[in-house]
Specification:
The complex is a heterodimer of chains A (351) and B (111). Chain A contains 14 helices and eight strands. Chain A is α/β, with parallel strands linked by helices and 351 residues long. In chain A, helix 4 (116-125) links the parallel strand 2 (102-106) and strand 3. Chain A is globular. Helices cover 66% and strands 0% of the residues of chain B. In chain B, helix 2 (43-56) runs antiparallel to helix 3 and helix 2 packs across helix 4 (77-97). Chain B has a domain at 11-86: Up-down Bundle (AhpD-like). The chains are: A alpha/beta (351), B mainly alpha (111). The interface between A and B is medium-sized, with 17 and 10 residues.
Chain lengths: 351, 111
């Protein structure tokens, strides 16, 4: 398993432009599979446009204590990109100015940002209805300075959403690194201990499942049932919901698909599973994604491919909700990942 | 004509058998889809049974389909392998249980 990001390996696929070029040629070339744009042209939603802005997803930076083999961010300890205090203040201004009801902090490991606690305190004081922190779990046990985070989350009524690719050790460690499973379980037990995920508690703890290989996720409800049964029986761990997320064919997962000669079959499976019903609920229609340097994107995946919003307003410096609302959402072949089967989003399946 | 009897791409064409006999084809797929629904047995248990049977009848299409189906359902490799050993045990047992017949004949004909 690699311990370095594609960027630090100087891998060609560290570049968004290279990934997009790969995704637009080969089997999506003439006579092969239909491009996403061609595929949706034949549906009732031939062009994707924003609905009401409800979710602000802020990527605080790409630094992470883990180097997961499927990571679409290409995050890791060697990534130094971090949102500045000035940009964080701009994000708070947006919360004041817009109808956003959900604030979604992601990374990297957002907890590693030096201003993380300060920002949570400020944003929480503004009264966001649903304040999400996407935690990789192991960070909560990585260093003593993070040990009190479950209490901190509780104080600010944070909705914790955590990745746990499987309820057994082997698959989890293979995807996320040796020892990750045990540390994740410890972190879940700590979260449970302060009330997270308990049946009689309002503190929300959701888990994210993503397939550990070149296949699509199964039924969300059935997997949730299996997770709940196994985690309770084996580790006395409770949680609220399980979200299944399809692995996007970008960044490290794209590199894996190509290296393991699974790329074509995976893309064929995504295209075959295209579901027009999922198209109506894709997250890019009610979400705005902010990069560490203040640039704006339709979603976190477009952020990693550096496909900025198609609008005269592309940066927080110029933020104005009205012109942004008029934009068309940028798409490419990776978008098949969000419309396959029951669909996929940062909140799990959408159909 | 293809140069081999089995081609993985043929699996995707399975539904085409309906073209030459729509009534029977549709009845078959309707039955097939109903069989695999959640019932007294879970869809997960049925997937494991299908995987074991696939190996018993040595159908490469079925092995491909139900290995991937199991992955999607979160069935791990130890569960898949145990299911195969159930198939192997029954298959092996089916040979060995005939040993009783062999022993009877042997004993009857021997002094």
């Amino acid at each position: 398993m690699n311990t370095k990001s594609l960027q630090s390996q100087k891998h060609a696929l560290a570049s968004g432009a290279k990934q997009l070029s790969f995704l637009s040629n080969g089997i999506f070339g003439q006579g092969g599979l239909p491009t996403f744009s061609e595929r949706i042209a034949a549906t009732a939603t031939p062009v994707l446009q924003p609905q009401k802005l409800e979710i602000l997803q802020i990527n605080l930076g790409y630094m992470c204590n883990q180097v997961c083999s499927h990571c679409h961010v290409d995050a890791g300890p060697d990534r130094k990109e971090m949102m500045s205090r000035a940009t964080l203040v701009q994000c708070l201004e947006i919360l004041k100015k817009t109808s956003v009801h959900t604030l979604d902090l992601t990374g990297g490991a957002p907890e590693m940002h030096p201003d993380f606690r300060w920002f949570v305190e400020q944003a929480s004081a503004l009264g966001v209805a649903d304040f999400i922190v996407r935690s990789n779990l192991t960070i909560l046990r990585a260093n003593k300075k993070y040990y009190d985070l479950p209490e901190f989350f509780k104080t600010h009524n944070i909705h914790v959403i955590s990745s746990l690719p499987f309820y057994k050790k082997e698959k989890t460690d293979r995807q996320r690194g040796a020892g990750v499973f045990s540390k994740s379980i410890e972190a879940l037990q700590q979260l449970n201990a302060v009330g997270y995920g308990k049946p009689d508690s309002k503190l929300q703890l959701d888990l994210v499942y993503n397939p550990s290989g070149a296949f699509l996720p199964g039924d969300q409800k059935a997997l949730e049932k299996d997770y709940k049964k196994a985690l309770k029986a084996d580790f006395d761990v409770d949680f609220n919901q399980l979200f299944t997320i399809t692995n996007m064919p970008i960044s490290r997962f794209l590199e894996y698909l190509i290296a393991s000669e699974n790329y074509e079959e995976y893309m064929e499976a995504l295209v075959a599973a295209f579901n027009p019903a999922a198209l109506n609920n894709v997250m890019c229609t009610n979400t705005l994604s902010v990069r560490w340097d203040g640039f704006l994107y339709d979603c976190d995946f477009n952020q990693m491919l550096d496909i900025k919003v198609a609008s005269p307003i592309q940066h927080l410096d110029d933020f104005d909700p009205a012109p942004l609302q008029e934009r068309t959402i940028c798409i490419s072949q990776h978008c098949y990942g969000c419309t396959a089967g029951a669909g996929s989003s940062c909140q799990g399946s959408v159909v | 004509m293809k140069k081999t009897y089995y081609d993985p791409a043929d699996l995707k064409q399975f539904k085409n058998i309906t073209d030459w006999s729509p009534e029977l084809g549709e009845k078959f797929f309707d039955y097939y889809n109903t069989v695999f629904k959640e019932g007294a047995l879970s869809a997960r248990e049925k997937s494991l049974i299908a995987l074991a049977v696939a190996h018993t009848i040595q159908c490469p299409y079925c092995i491909d389909a139900y290995t991937q189906d199991g992955l999607k359902r979160g069935i791990d490799k130890s569960e898949m392998m145990e299911a195969l050993h159930v198939a192997g045990a029954i298959r092996g047992g089916a040979s060995l249980v005939h040993g009783v017949q062999m022993m009877d004949i042997y004993n009857k004909k021997s002094m």
